[in-house]
Amino acid sequence: MLLRKNTHKVFGLLIGFLLLLLSFVASIIYGYTDTSFSLAIDAFRNFDGSNEHIIVQSVRLPRAIIAAVVGGSLAIAGLWMQALTKNPLASPGIFGINAGASFFVVVAVSFFSVTSLQTYTWLAFAGAALAAFAVYFIGSIGREGLTPMKLTLAGAAFAAMFSSLTQGLLVVNETALDQVLFWLAGSVQGRSLDMVYAVLPYIAVAWFASFFIGKKINLLAMGDDVATSLGVKIGFLKITAAIIIILLAGGSVAIAGPIVFIGIVIPHVARYLVGTDHRWLAPYCGLLGGILLLIADIGARYVIMPQEVPVGVMTAVIGTPFFIYIARRGFHGK
């Protein structure tokens, strides 16, 4: 743990907020179209309808907001998944939650030609919930009950199944393929603020609830029996955390598609900084997740310029080595 005193942790939050703000501004400024900080300010203060001003207001600003919201949401979802399952590899991507949400959206596009953002949102929530409960159920079967290894295997199996079904649907439906191919790679490009407005109320509720369950999650980490003896309602707490995960992961997929590895990487980085107290981990994950996705999105603009790489590809490049490192350490931190 790098930051041991509460004053240091508060200072770290302020530094994190400043870095998030700088990353947000950089996301608005940098890209294929050359802009500057003064031009970006002018686009909001004295909008003149020029191409540069339109890009700043209608393209870069929504993109930066979506990256910050989705990055923070996926990081917090990964934190609660790891806390509930006691599995360092748990995340919405690895456990098939993102894949389940994506599958439901693709089914709606393929068979029902759905275009409503609100419908996308509810379908993503439904797919995320189905995948989460299916993984938990399969991982609990057997005499040993729920174990980190069984959860990981069940999650990987369901992620592969939903991904295969999704690809199968797209193979036989070229129209749906054109609509969702770039979205399925995980991208914040070409999104509008309307998408954020459709999902933000649900994500905001999940964020708000996340800052109130940290203390009880700390007690849960000591074991179910200890937590129960200290007055924690185990069943209610787990259901609450599961709903938070579904809202955060499902909402993120509805906006930006299945972006991977943020839910694995960021909780571990946050623990390195502030330890295992979830009251501190939740806000740190929110800030660090937003910073990571903003920086990844900026990098995605330059890799093969003038074309862009989907930001989901960039997070996979960043996260894969970290995932291998965590897997090699084993489930007990050895």
Question: In brief, what are we looking at here?
Answer:
This is Iron ABC transporter. It comes from Sutcliffiella horikoshii. The chain is mainly alpha-helical and 334 residues long.
Structure description:
This protein is mainly α. It has helices at residues 6-29, 37-45, 51-85, 97-112, 117-140, 148-171, 174-184, 193-210, 214-220, 224-229, 234-256, 262-274, 278-302, 311-329. The chain has one domain (63-328): ABC transporter involved in vitamin B12 uptake, BtuC. Helices cover 76% and strands 0% of the residues. One of its GO terms (cellular component) is plasma membrane. The chain crosses the membrane at residues 64-81, 93-114, 120-139, 151-172, 192-214, 281-303, 309-327.
Q: What proportion strand?
A: under 5%
**Mean pLDDT, as a whole number?**
88
Provide the number of structural domains.
1
* Low-pLDDT regions: none
Helical content (DSSP H or I, runs of 4+): over 70%
Beta-strand segment tally: 0
- Count of discrete alpha- or pi-helical segments spanning 4 or more residues: 14
CATH superfamily: ABC transporter involved in vitamin B12 uptake, BtuC
Q: Per CATH, which architecture? A: Orthogonal Bundle
Structural class: mainly alpha
